[in-house]
């Protein structure tokens, strides 16, 4: 009888242990259930975002299935800076790049480094060449402004890449396989630049990559063959094609483990005004970009030394420039629409840019902004039927009053570089689209 209390205590302890085990099992089951639900939700979000690596990245950064639809074409000015001569920093590479995440199409437009940016060609000096603008104050915005003036594009972002960045990036990813178009043999002791490459496909390390993109002519003054594009034209073509290969080969899955090293290079040798929140919206879709969807061209114009200083400068052809800008940056979106006849169908009176009736209302408080927006849209081929003023607003709005296609609306947004697209159909409206310019329009 004396042992009974002891046995009761043991029984009570066993019961408590069993209860604790049951409680922990329940907690564990609930925890696992939550994990399964979260994984399921994540997988569903990935599926809705298109699946694959792109869908995973889009989900991680908080996108939904509508995020990409609202993204316009991303445009940026790329400046490649040579730092061989201390304090000079001439711009050897000038390119406008664009990327549309919805069409997965991109463009590279080379700007000749001798492009004249002054107002009087007969008085042209080397100081007024576009490649000298950055070296004046080491401010990329001056070059950006000049490029926008020449092209009529509303580019907002720039990236300045020093020579060292290219060398180190190519070495980090294990080199770039590239078909060198000709034998290259050039020496410049003043810049400590020595270029010695043989023609043909080969693996280029960072040092050879620099030689490739800086080559213009050989020591005996022979240069690229005419059919390839002689001198600067040939160099710009080589630069564009090399950039395409760098993008393609850097985007290989195995290089994801080298991301830290790549970011370190960017921090030290790259300057940009791109906001991270803007960049992160495009990155998930850019990882699946196919370089075969990239168009490339060079700014049309003429090299001449017919000026008082006898300095060779490149004078852009305004008429041909307008045509090439239209073809590269706007017509591709229209082509995309005609390829898909089952969606985004438009009415017979809104099948092309010049038949869409657009009104622009100025809500920015600045008359100059209305004039600028009208000029940009008309320059891109749109038909502005009337303008006016409205109450001051912060955000630019593009309102679809009729059955205008999403593609054309996004095209308008790309042209002016701003605008939330919405629909407010009205059968009595005398215009197809109303654009309200807000304070955010630059």
What are its keywords?
13 helices, Aminopeptidase, 6-stranded mixed beta sheet, 5-stranded mixed beta sheet, 442 residues, alpha/beta, 21% strand, Alpha-Beta Plaits
Description:
The protein is of the alpha/beta class and 442 residues long. It has two domains: 72-329, Aminopeptidase (3-Layer(aba) Sandwich); 345-437, Alpha-Beta Plaits. It has helices at residues 4-48, 52-60, 130-137, 140-151, 163-172, 206-214, 231-250, 259-269, 276-286, 318-329, 331-339, 367-379, 406-416, and strands at residues 74-81, 91-100, 105-110, 157-162, 176-180, 184-188, 193-197, 200-204, 270-272, 294-298, 301-304, 313-316, 357-362, 383-389, 397-400, 420-423, 433-437. A six-stranded mixed beta sheet has the order 9-4-1-2-3-10, with helices on both faces. The chain has a five-stranded mixed beta sheet with strand order 14-13-17-15-16, covered by helices on one side. Strands 5-8 form a two-stranded antiparallel sheet. Strand 15 (397-400), helix 13 (406-416) and strand 16 (420-423) form a beta-alpha-beta unit. The longest helix is centred in the first third of the chain and has 45 residues, at 4-48. The chain is flat.
């Amino acid at each position: 009888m004396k042992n009974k209390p002891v046995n009761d205590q043991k029984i009570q302890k066993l019961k408590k242990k069993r209860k604790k085990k049951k409680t922990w099992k329940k907690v564990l089951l609930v925890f696992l259930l939550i994990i399964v639900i979260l994984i399921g939700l994540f997988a569903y979000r990935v599926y809705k975002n298109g699946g694959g690596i792109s869908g995973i990245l889009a989900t991680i950064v908080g996108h939904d299935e509508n995020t990409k639809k609202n993204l316009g074409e991303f445009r940026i000015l790329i400046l490649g800076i040579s730092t061989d001569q201390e304090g000079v920093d001439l711009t050897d590479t000038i390119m406008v790049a664009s990327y549309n995440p919805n069409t997965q199409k991109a463009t590279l437009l080379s700007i000749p480094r001798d492009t004249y940016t002054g107002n009087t060609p007969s008085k042209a000096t080397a100081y007024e060449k576009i490649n000298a603008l950055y070296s004046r104050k080491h401010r990329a915005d001056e070059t950006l402004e000049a490029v926008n003036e020449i092209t009529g594009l509303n580019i907002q972002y720039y990236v300045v890449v020093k020579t060292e960045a290219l060398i180190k990036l190519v070495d980090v990813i294990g080199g770039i396989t590239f078909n060198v178009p000709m034998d290259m043999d050039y020496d410049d002791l003043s810049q400590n630049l020595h270029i010695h490459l043989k023609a043909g496909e080969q693996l280029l390390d960072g040092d050879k990559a620099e030689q490739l993109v800086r080559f213009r002519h050989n020591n005996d003054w022979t240069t690229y063959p005419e059919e390839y594009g002689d001198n600067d034209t040939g160099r710009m073509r080589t630069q564009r094609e090399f950039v395409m290969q760098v993008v393609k080969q850097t985007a290989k899955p195995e290089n994801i483990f080298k991301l830290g090293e790549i970011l370190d290079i960017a921090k030290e040798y790259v300057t940009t005004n791109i906001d991270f929140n803007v960049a992160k919206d495009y990155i998930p879709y850019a990882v699946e970009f196919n370089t075969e969807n990239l168009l490339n061209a060079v700014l049309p114009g003429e090299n001449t030394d017919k000026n008082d200083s006898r300095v060779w400068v490149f004078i852009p052809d305004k008429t041909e420039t307008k045509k090439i800008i239209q073809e590269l940056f706007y017509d591709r979106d229209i082509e995309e629409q005609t390829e898909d006849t089952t969606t985004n169908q438009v009415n017979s009176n809104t099948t092309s840019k010049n038949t869409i009736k657009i009104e622009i209302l100025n809500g920015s408080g600045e008359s100059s902004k209305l004039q600028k927006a009208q000029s940009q849209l008309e320059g891109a081929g749109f038909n502005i039927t009337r303008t006016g003023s409205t109450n001051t607003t912060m955000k630019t709005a593009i309102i679809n009053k009729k059955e205008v296609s999403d593609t054309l609306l996004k095209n308008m947004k790309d042209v002016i570089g701003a605008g939330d697209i919405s629909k407010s159909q009205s059968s009595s409206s005398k215009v197809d689209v109303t654009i309200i310019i807000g304070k955010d329009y630059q």
